[in-house]
Amino acid sequence: MPxxxxxxxxxxxxxxxATVASxxxxxxxxxxxxxxxxxxxxxxxxxxxxxxxxxxxLPGGESLEWCYGCGKCVPVCPVDVVGEYGPxxxxxxxxxxxxxxxxxxxxxxxxxxxxxRVCPKEVDMIQIMPAVREAALTDGGHxxxxxxxxxxxxxxxxxxxxxxxRRRAQWTRAAGVPVRILPNEPGPVDVLFxxxxxxxxxxxxxxxxxxxxxxxxxxxxxxxTRTRSMHWSRSTPSAGTPSMRCTTPSCWPRxxxxxxxxxxxxxxSPSMTPATSDGTTASTTHPAP
Length: 289
Hints:
This protein has helices at residues 50-56, 73-76, 78-82, 87-95, 114-118, 125-138, 145-157, 197-201, 203-221; strands spanning 2-3, 6-7, 12-13, 17-21, 28-32, 38-39, 230-234, 245-246, 271-276, 284-285. The chain is an alpha+beta fold. Among the domains are: 2-39, no CATH class; 50-138, Fumarate Reductase Iron-sulfur Protein, Chain B, domain 2 (Orthogonal Bundle); 165-218, no CATH class.
């Protein structure tokens, strides 16, 4: 049985000779050693609940002690795929007296939310882990070296990569579209695009930032479109055949198999006629999805 984080074997107690008196007849029976062996009662728990109390006192850390160890969280944990990890295992560590704020496993959680999705007790690691991490930083607990390096670079240079702050907007020169930089051109904006450190300095991030800028510029230059409620009516090959109306693509599979439609792979795209709510129509071709 686990004691202090270790599994101790049971301790046997036996005497060479023992005499037992019957409570009914009062007769004494002599028992040799092989018949009077007894096991000492084992301690089921010798841990302090202070660890759960400390975490529960943090905002967002209340749900850790709700865990009852079913283990559903471990198979869906992406960190457990490459190591020995999982919310149930963290709960067991706290249960056995480990200070989670000083444990290296505190910083392995990605807060992906997979465990919360399958947890029957709704133990929310998305709130627990940031709360304990904040407490660890505040109280001067164990902090990984790479995270300390990020803190130092952010303090010195204002970004986590330790790059020159004057080069933050350098990626805009090769964007291919004009990009307004608010420190140079202050004023109100309709949509604010905050370019974080990775997109500002890392080569792959800069490519993503330039691509986003081009997409945003193309969207801004496109004419606005008005969304109207309409029904799409498939043109029929001959008069008198009832037309089929469809408001969403979900009704396409319900078209008759004998008639060509957007889901047909052997027939060309049918001519579609959008019928607006005011009764007017406009002919266009609706491509097959």
